Each structure stands twice: as structure tokens, then as C-alpha cells.
Amino acid sequence: MALSNHYPARGIHSFNKTYMSIPYTILSFILFSCHTTRFASEIEAPKHQPVKTVTNINPPKPKNVIFMIGDGMGLTQITAGMYMNGNHLEMERCTSIGLHKSYSANELVTESAAGATAFSIGMKTKNGYLGLDSAGVSHTTIMEDASKNGSATGIIVTCSIEHATPAAFYAHQKERDHFDDIIPDLLNSNLNLFIGGGKKYVDRKTKDTLSLVNQLKNKGYLVNDYHENDKTTWIIPDVKKVCYFTADGEPLPYSKGRTYLPIATKAGIDYLNKASDHGFFLMIEGSQIDWGGHANDADYLIAEVLDFDRAVKEALDFAEKDKNTLVLITADHETGGFAINSGKKFGDLSTSFTTKKHTAALIPVYAYGPGAELFSGIYENTEIYVKLKKLMDLK
Fold first, then answer.
1. Is it the case that residue 15 has pLDDT exceeding 60?
2. What are 362-381's pLDDT values in tens digits?
3. Are residues 284 and 203 in the same domain?
4. Neighbours of 85 (CB within 10 A)
5. Spatial distance between the Cα atoms of 318 and 314, rounded to a whole number of angstroms
6. What's the pLDDT at 45?
7. What is the pLDDT of residue 256?
8. Do residues 308 and 289 touch, judged by C-beta distance below 8 A?
9. Is the pLDDT of residue 211 over 80?
10. How far is CA 39 from CA 26, 124, 361, in A?
11. CA distance 242 to 255
């Protein structure tokens, strides 16, 4: 997102009586000069001493990690889902809550590629970059490290598998929209499981007519899709690698019949739990919460939050029973500047939006399971990578 030239370089705290005597034209000049853009190419956060929020420096370490991202899901989106669902969400079962700072390397307002890359490589990067630092240098993602460490890995999303958030965990590209460049990174990712839309980007590339489905099969993947099997009843077979396309392009919204996320979450967890003795790392995204925000459509947004929360239930139910799984729930950014206004009641909300784009609001983080206490407090979005890496014993 481009930052407005009205972002202040320094807060103007007060004026004394001397300033009040300055002629209006001179005062206007001073005020204008104080509101010039403070970002040239890289954002500089104010220098401060880091706040120590961790109370247990040696927390218990999980065998499995389920990392759940509600794209565009700020605190108000969560609140709206709760108030439209009998004042309850499954997320409330989490035992630790924190907030992360979502800005990117070059913009105060981030987007999904940079936001997810902060989670995947632990570095702030430029908007649009995937798996690269702000200088364009590639870094191994946490999912790639987990795979190298022997963990089974997977991605389940309600967008295309090549979209920005999932791609940030396996791709290394400067353009989030260049799917033809992202697909080869997917082929080389060594993921055990991926479920999402976007078959046409693999089957029918835009640069050439080469189908990459056969290459997936040659790399050991069982490739299946919505034409061959109903995604809500399909049982993942006992094979090493599985790719299931839920749509040719982008999957439908929940309100138009897409119901697979909670079902795929439970099936994906069960599959990965059997795939390796070294545990698993699974990233799940409720992708279309963001799209509801961009559309300024509260009904769309809330339906997606509640669908995502049903997937959260499956993850928490497993973790509660397993007792060796960390469930981490957050968002990459907030979308829409969403607000709940006065004059209504539970189940009948009055809402509004301030933008069709993203905002720079702090983002909530919810955690449950071994190591959950590490995620309390306020911290940079890159700290999520640092904390996960510590808990997973990744080098």
C-alpha cells in the first residue's frame, strides 16, 4: 500500500504561548513541514528497548505446530464473528493472547506477501515479496526448515495454492502475482500435503502450454481434484505426498457453497500426524476473510470468520487430545478498517468500513498448547518466526 504524505514524521504534542503569536502563514508552513513523508525506501521503526514478555525461557516444546492465519482478520472481524455467533468463538479456548506489529519493510501498511513472509523467514520485507528479505535475498522458510528436520508439512487454504499467503511459505519471488514463476517453487517445495484452489495455474500456464500436473506426479504426488472426488467426503489416502485442488481458479465463498475448510483441516491433521515420527507443521489459511474486507461486505466477512473458526475447533480439539501440539492463530493484517457501531444488538450488528484496502492496526495472536506462553505480549510480526523456530528446535 502506498503511504499518504500526511503521515507525521513526529507527533506534535503541544504549543506554548510563544507559538500562538506566530503569524498564521508561518505556522501553516511549520505544520506542513512536520507532515512530510518519513519513508524513502525503508521504514524505520522508532528505536526502543525491547520489552521482555516471556515468563518461561524454557517452555515445553510441541511435537506438532498448526499455524492458522485468518487473512485480513483484525480484532473487530473476530468480535463481529463472535457477536453474530451467540457471543462465542472457538478461539476463546486459547490460553495466551498477544499482539503483533504488522508493518512491512517499506510501508506502514503491509499486504499478504510481506506479512506472511515475516512469519515464514523472520524478516521484514517489501510489499509483494515472497520468501525474500527487503534486499531480494532468498531465505529458507520455516516450513522448508521443518521439512529438512524430518517433520511432515502441509498447507490448506480457501484461495488458490499459489496465492500470496501460502506461497510465502514455499516460494522465493519478487512478484506475488507472477504465478508462472511461483509454480516451480511449489514443485520443489517437498510439501507432504497441499489443499486449495488454482488448478488452472498448474495445468494451464499463461507463458506456455506446458502442464505441470505430470511433474507433480513425477515428484511422487497423488494429484486429485474437485472433478474426481467430492472434497467434503474424500478420504486422504495413505501415500507420502498429496495434492488436492478444490477449484480450477479461486474457490467459492463460504456463502456460495464452499464448506471444505473444517473438513480438510481435520483430515489434513490426521494425515500429517501419521506421516512422520518427527511431528508436523501445518499452515491453514482462512483466505477470504480478507476478500470480504476488500469488498466492504460485512456478511461475506463474518461468514468467512465463522468458517475459519470451525477449522480452529478441529485444530484445538486435536491439540487438546494430543497434548503435544501448539495451535497458533493470527492474521497477516487487518482489511477494511472494519467497525461495529452503536444502535444494534447481538446477532444484528451495525457495521462500517473506512477503506477497501488494508490498515496498520495491531493484530491479535492466540495460542494454545506447549509453548503458548511465548506468544503473550506485544511484538513484531517477525517474532512469531523466532518463537516458533525456538519451540521447534530448528537450526
1. no
2. 999 999 999 999 999 999 99
3. yes
4. 16
5. 6
6. 65
7. 97
8. yes
9. no
10. 25, 15, 18
11. 27
**pLDDT for 259 beyond 80:** yes
CA distance 220 to 212: 13
Question: What's the pLDDT at 4?
Answer: 39
Per-residue cell: 291: 476478500
Contact call for residues 147 and 393 (beta carbons, < 8 A) = no
Does 331 reside within a domain? yes
Work out the average pLDDT over 168-195.
94
Q: Which residues contact 52 (CB under 8 A, 6 or more apart)?
A: none
Over residues 40-63, mean pLDDT: 63
Range of the domain at 24: 1-38
Burial 192-227 (b: 16+ CB within 10 A, else e): bbbbbbbbebbbeeeeeeeebbeebeeeebebbbbe
In terms of domains, do 33 and 93 share one?
A: no
> Is 59 within a domain?
no
The domain that holds 151 is classified in CATH as 3.40.720.10
Instruction: Report the distance separating Cα 89 and Cα 75, nearest Å.
Output: 13
Same domain, 369 and 270: yes
- Which pLDDT score, from 0 to 100, does residue 57 have? 67
- Average pLDDT for 218-226: 93
Give the separation between CA 374 and CA 387, rounded to whole angstroms.
Answer: 7
Residue 249 pLDDT > 80? yes
Please check whether residues 203 and 328 belong to one and the same domain: yes
34 and 68 in a single domain? The answer is no
Instruction: Let me know if residue 44 belongs to a domain.
Output: no
> What pLDDT score does 272 carry?
98
Amino acid at 185: D
Q: Are residues 29 and 139 in the same domain?
A: no
Residues 111 and 195 in one domain: yes
Domain count, the chain: 2
In a domain, 14, yes or no: yes
Sort 1 into a burial class: Cβ within 10 Å, 0-12 / 13-18 / 19+. middle
